[in-house]
Design brief:
- The chain is of the alpha/beta class and about 190 residues long.
- The chain has a domain of about 120 residues: Glutaredoxin (3-Layer(aba) Sandwich), CATH 3.40.30.10.
- Helix content is about 50%, strand content about 15%.
- It has 5 helices and 7 strands; from the N terminus they run ααβαβαβββαββ.
- The strands form 2 sheets. The chain has a 5-stranded mixed sheet with strand order 2-1-4-5-6. It has a two-stranded antiparallel ribbon with strand order 3-7.
Length: about 190
């Protein structure tokens, strides 16, 4: 009986070893697939976030945009906004196509520096695109996810003399989150 127990123990240890080896192999395979996927799809995964970050850096100052006698494309956005990320490649394409003739201004709603513009243009949802003629008159406001054709049509109409104001709202937009960084509380000593 002692021999039977010993052989069962050896057999059980052998099965555990095989199981551990198989688990390690499966784990290595899964990790490899994840790493390869990230490497292959990194551009599509991170491109929109990169574009949003670059918008603020490439933006024309709003004070200059409203006084240089060119039409203005003004976008209010946030880096956390999923709809903003989704529209970023389309907005970037507009910028590449029209930037010689139109000012492109990008204002991050999380930056307190732009709060006066956020209030002035009644920004409650993002992305919000405002299009102005060369005299600084507001021509179109787009709130939320928009069709490229609608925006392109409005951009092309900026050069026309008579333009009725148009507001286009899509249900797919992000509500601006209240910025609590500057709030004073009894414990903030501020």
């Amino acid at each position: 009986m002692f021999l039977v127990d010993n052989s069962l123990t050896v057999q059980s240890e052998s099965q555990e070893q095989i199981l551990k080896t198989n688990l390690k192999t499966i784990l290595i395979l899964i990790i490899s697939i994840v790493i390869i996927s990230l490497l292959l799809f990194r551009n599509s995964l991170f491109k929109s976030t990169y574009l949003l970050k670059s918008f603020g850096e490439l933006s024309v100052d709003p004070e200059i945009a409203f006084t240089n006698n060119k039409p203005t494309f003004l976008e209010f956005y946030a880096e956390w906004c999923e709809v903003c990320k989704e529209m970023a490649p389309q907005v970037s394409a507009f910028k590449d196509e029209y930037e010689k003739d139109i000012n492109f201004v990008f204002l991050n709603v999380d930056n307190q520096k732009w709060s006066n513009y956020i209030q002035k243009f009644d920004v409650n949802g993002i992305p919000q695109l405002n299009l102005f003629d060369k005299k600084g008159n507001l021509i179109s406001t787009f709130i939320g996810k928009q069709d490229e054709i609608k925006i392109r049509k409005s951009i092309n109409n900026l050069e026309k003399e008579e333009k009725p104001y148009e507001e286009i709202i899509n249900a797919e937009f992000s509500t601006i989150q209240e910025n609590k960084n500057n709030e004073v509380s009894p414990r903030s000593h501020g």
